[in-house]
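PROTEIN DESIGN WORKSHEET
SECTION A - STRUCTURE
LENGTH: 198
C-ALPHA CELLS:
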C-alpha cells in the first residue's frame, strides 16, 4: 500500500500537465470543459483501479523488480486444476509477502504437492527456487523443502573438544576398598592380643 501513493502521485502530476495544456491551447470552450471533466473523472477511476489490483495475485511473468530473485519462501498455495497455481511468497529484502499466479502445469503441480508434504514431514518451510525465471528443463525443481539447519559447534572457541571421562560407581567403590588403612600408611603394625596356650 505504501508503494501505491508514489505511483498515484506521478499519475496525478501527468494528468495535471495534460489538463493545463488542454486549457491553454487555442481551442473552443466546450472542448476545454470536456478535457477538464475527463481529467476530473480520470483520477478517481485510476485510484480505484490501482487499489483493486492490489487484492489480486500478480502474474509471475510480469514481475520485473524482483525477477532475479534466487529463492522465496512459500507461505501458502492453492491450485485450480486446468487454470492456475496460486502462491504466496516471502522474498528476501521484501518486508511484505506477495501473491502471484502461475500458469497451470501438471508436472509443476505434482512437484509442489510432493515438496509440500516433504516439508511438512520435516517441519521445514516450503521453498521456491527462481520463482520468476522460466525453467528450461522439466527436471529442474521449482519447489523443494528447505534443508535442515546446521547444528552449532559444541565448543564455541573452535578448538578440539576435551574427551569426557566417565567412572562407574563400582570402580570408585573398589578403589575405596583397596585403599590401605591409615596404620599401614604410617609404618606402624597394628597390635594383636596374645593368645593363651593350654
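SECTION B - SEQUENCE
RESIDUE ASSIGNMENT:
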Amino acid at each position: 500500500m505504501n508503494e501505491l501513493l508514489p505511483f498515484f502521485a506521478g499519475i496525478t502530476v501527468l494528468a495535471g500537465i495534460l489538463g493545463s495544456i488542454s486549457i491553454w491551447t487555442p481551442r473552443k470552450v466546450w472542448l476545454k470543459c470536456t478535457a477538464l471533466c475527463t481529467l476530473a473523472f480520470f483520477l478517481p477511476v485510476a485510484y480505484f483501479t490501482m487499489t483493486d489490483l492490489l487484492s489480486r495475485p500478480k502474474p509471475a511473468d510480469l514481475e520485473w523488480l524482483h525477477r532475479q530473485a534466487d529463492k522465496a519462501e512459500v507461505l501458502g498455495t492453492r491450485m485450480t486444476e486446468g487454470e492456475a497455481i496460486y502462491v504466496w511468497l516471502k522474498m528476501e529484502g521484501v518486508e511484505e509477502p506477495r501473491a502471484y499466479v502461475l500458469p497451470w502445469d501438471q508436472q509443476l503441480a505434482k512437484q509442489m504437492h510432493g515438496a509440500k508434504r516433504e516439508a511438512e514431514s520435516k517441519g521445514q518451510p516450503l521453498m521456491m527456487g527462481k520463482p520468476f525465471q522460466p525453467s528450461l528443463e522439466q527436471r529442474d525443481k521449482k519447489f523443494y523443502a528447505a534443508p535442515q539447519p546446521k547444528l552449532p559447534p559444541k565448543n564455541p572457541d573452535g578448538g578440539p573438544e576435551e574427551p569426557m571421562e566417565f567412572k562407574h560407581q563400582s570402580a570408585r567403590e573398589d578403589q575405596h576398598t583397596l585403599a590401605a588403612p591409615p596404620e599401614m600408611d604410617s609404618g606402624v603394625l597394628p597390635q594383636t592380643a596374645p593368645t593363651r596356650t593350654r
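SECTION C - NOTES
Residues 4-55 form one domain.
The chain has a mean pLDDT of 76.
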